[in-house]
Amino acid sequence: MTLHHPYRIWIRLMDMKRIRRHPSPVQDPNPDPESDGFLRNAVSEKRAATTAGGGSPAGLRRLAAVFAIAVLMLLSLLVLLPRAGLSLDRFVGASVEKEGFRVVFHEEGGPPKSSNASKDKLLGGLLIDEFDESSCLSRYQSAMFRKVSPHIPSPYLLKRLRRYEALHKKCGPGTELYNKIVDQLKSGQYVGNAECNYIVYISYSGLGNRILTLASTFLYSLLTDRVLLVDHGGDLADLFCEPFPETSWLLPLDFPVNQFSSFEKESPESYGNMLKNNVFANSGDGDPKVKIPPYIYLHLAHDYGDHDKLFFCDEDQLLLQKIPWLVLRSDNYFVPSLFLMPEYEEELHRLFPQRDTVFHHLGRYLFHPTNSVWGLVKRYYLAYMAKADERVGIQIRVFEMEPGPFQHVFDQLLACVQKEKLLPDVTPEEPVNQTAYIRSKAILVTSLNSGYSEKLRNMYWENSATNGEIISVNQPSNEESQQTQKQMHNRKAWAEMYLLSLTDSLITSAWSTFGYVAQGLAGLKPWILFKPENRTVPDPACRRVMSMEPCFHAPPFYDCKAKRGVDTGALVPYVRHCEDMSWGLKLVDQDEW
């Protein structure tokens, strides 16, 4: 059914009356009803017809009848549309304002406009306005799709980001200084106090892990004044825009060290093995007893050994500072252990006075979807999420060998959302007293299996929500299994993480880096679904997390000064054990126990 503006309906009724009484031999038989000329002619001829009637009783009665019909049609629209959960402005133009975020949808289907887009385009100063917008649409458009973050980056963090950008521009690929130090690397020479030092990230593991490790590595580069370069071995260039202006973070393909794929725990180039095999010894003052190699491999993956973990000791950092090239491989968010190092304690406090915002700020600074991924995000958001009054994200990750879906997982989800009042209960009865406007809630489900979203969708289709809300359930993809090496799979995964970060509240799964990324970008503390044991629903099914920071799944438990094992989750009040992994560590914004 096509709906027209009431004023246009009234004009057309008057014009039909005029045609019946005053046909014109020169009038266009098919005028454009949307044109200004049509409206002007209709109004002027309506006035002429009224004047010709001389104000006779018959003419006035006809005019009153037409006006009454128009009023009745308008009233019917005003009554029927709200009962359907709609309003006239959904067709002429809708405006939704929530918590300072304003999005306007237009009849022609254009993109949303945000009243905060202009002032928050740079995300509180994290970004600078020096990029070609067309090369990375998401960088500046993302502010139109999310609420303004209540977490303000510190002035010192902004200052350090600008300083890093200048360093990367001076020392990045293709510069004279870069070419000079690469030549030294080829020759095997070591030059002390080099003007530019580097850390190379090796792409490894699933996308969520890679994002978290990249953020960790970038923080380390800030702390040590190193230039971060990313190995071309992965598909990061297809997923993320260049984060630094007028330069690239991609390691050139002709880099002389090309055996990255073979680096692993037992590699002789690793720092841990060098220590274990006494290839060189750290004298305690940072001066090695033998010649320092031009590069060292840092193995910080989940299977790293005790000697590898000495990376997190101040004494070892003194030696590593003298190495021009560090090559790092990890699948961990190792930021919490950096906060336990006295060497960096003061600097980290200045960078992040609110300690649980590290990934929130660095993630929004570094990770901007490429145009191909942004298209997936934008189209899905506008089609299924934008017009809802509230958006709820549900991320389900099941660590089972069988594909599922599993009934106990769905039961756990229901137990969580109902106890925490995140979604309404259902009833087979239809609501009797319907309000003038029905609230809508869009549920975004991300999972490798479509069974959970289908069960949820059927539940809200076959029953009414007890609070009268209209619930829509949508799932962008169901890939059945993780396919890390496939380009489109990773594009969809990154798009879905980003879509989850655009929701108002989140439910995530234990141990899942996918959920960690979403909550960090969103700046939300999610409700986390505990990992089920023996395929039974845990009690409680979920809980609200202490902070939006990701969990470090494989932290060291070592006191560098005492040189003995220690519970690193009990040393300071701002580094605690994770809710979903008892041995993991995460940052919280607390100064007292």
Overview features:
593 residues, 4-stranded parallel beta sheet, alpha/beta, disordered N terminus, glycosyltransferase, 6-stranded mixed beta sheet
Number of helical segments with 4 or more residues: 20
Q: Name the poorly predicted regions.
A: 1-55, 81-117
Give the overall shape. Answer: globular
CA(first)-CA(last) distance: 62 Å
User: Which structural class matches the secondary elements?
Assistant: alpha/beta
Biggest beta sheet attributes:
6 strands, mixed
**Strand segment count:** 19
Beta-strand portion reads: 5-15%
Which sequence of strands runs across the widest sheet? 12-10-8-13-14-15
Taking all residues together, what is the mean pLDDT?
A: 84
**What is the radius of gyration computed over CA atoms, rounded to a whole number of angstroms?**
31 Å
Helix residue percentage: 25-40%
